[in-house]
Amino acid sequence: MSFFEDLKNNRDKQIMAISIVFFVLAFPIYFGLAAAGADGSAGLNEVNMYEVTGELSFIELAAGDEFIADGETLTINDLSTDSIDDAEDLNIVGVILTMSYTEDEQTTSNIPGSCAAVGGNPADDTITGMTMHGEYNEAASGSNNGDSGGHNVESFWINTSIVDEVVIMSKAEIISMVDADGAGLGAYSAEITVDAEAGGAGPGCSRSDAGEDVVYKIELVVFDYDIRPFFDLEEL
Ligand SMILES: [Ca+2]
Ligand SMILES: [Ca+2]
Fold first, then answer.
1. In the list 30, 64, 109, 175, which could disulfide-bond 205, CB 3.0-4.6 Å?
2. 144 located within any domain
3. 79 C-alpha vs ligand 1 centroid, how far in Å?
4. Which ligand lies nearest the alpha carbon of 211?
5. Is the domain of 24 the same as that of 63?
6. Residue range of the domain that includes 12
7. 154-205 pLDDT per residue, tens
8. Which backbone phi and psi does 164 adopt, to 5 degrees?
9. Model confidence at 37, in pLDDT bands (50, 70, 90)?
């Protein structure tokens, strides 16, 4: 028996078929009306329930690997969004300086090889990074814990608190919070400072710490946002 013949004779299947047709028609109509109400004629200033989502991407401005002497500062200058094609079309919302480092201390002794025997431990070095862009400066310190480590400096000039959230606001308000509106364009620079500490050593042995090797990367953060009317499916 074909599906249609079966359908003619089977009341349950008829009800099911009618229900399917109803929902197939009803859902697009409901969403169409709701979307029109929330989005279309309502305009930018109408307050509604919106879901704020988006995707982050990163553009490398600079990267390197430098030995920075104890007490010295490495300055990374002359960075600019002028080096990026169509930068003005991108929503550049922040900058991230990523650093990683190890530990290098020298042990010396009058008796060759004796330092390995008498031990001693390295002392922690402090590595401080800073990003600068117009009025937006951010700094953060990390430690190699006498071994290795890494940390980031993250600087954002948008309000990230509403990203991936459902909010009751106007589209204009949301845009003012997540759109950098050109604030990410222009010059950038960064600084990395090392404060090295030498650990203790056993008798007849001494330790020194001249600084630290820091691997760094400076990236712009681009946020491609999406503001959609939000419908609570449980309320349908
Ligand atoms: Ca050290
Ligand atoms: Ca060191």
1. 109
2. yes
3. 31
4. 2
5. no
6. 1-42
7. 999 999 999 999 999 999 999 999 999 999 999 999 999 999 999 988 788 8
8. 65, 25
9. low
Mean pLDDT of 1-19: 66
* Residue 140 alpha carbon to ligand 2 centre in Å: 18
Q: Are residues 103 and 195 in the same domain?
A: yes
Pair (37, 142) in one structural domain:
no
What spacing in Å lies between the alpha carbon of 146 and ligand 1's midpoint? Answer: 5
Query: Is residue 236 in some structural domain?
Result: no
The answer as to whether 195 is a domain residue is yes
pLDDT of residue 152: 98
Are 119 and 207 in contact by the 8 Å Cβ rule? The answer is no
Buried b / exposed e along 106-124 (16+ C-beta atoms within 10 A) = ebebeeeeebeeeebebbb
- On whether both 122 and 179 belong to a single domain, the answer is yes
CA 200–ligand 1 middle distance (angstroms): 10
210 with 182, same domain? yes
User: 195, 72 in Cβ contact below 8 A?
Assistant: no
Taking the C-alpha atoms of residue 201 and residue 111, their distance in angstroms, rounded to an integer, is 14
Domain total in the chain: 2
**Are 76 and 186 part of one and the same domain?**
yes
Q: Are residues 26 and 56 in the same domain?
A: no
Residues with CB under 5 A from ligand 2 (ion): 125, 196, 209, 212
Helix (H) or strand (E) holding 223: strand 211-229
Q: How far is the CA of 232 from the centre of ligand 1 (A)?
A: 55
Residue 102 CA: which ligand is closest?
A: 2
CA 127 – ligand 1 centroid, Å: 11
Ligand 1 centroid–CA 104 distance in Å is 7
Distance 70 CA to ligand 2 centre (A): 8
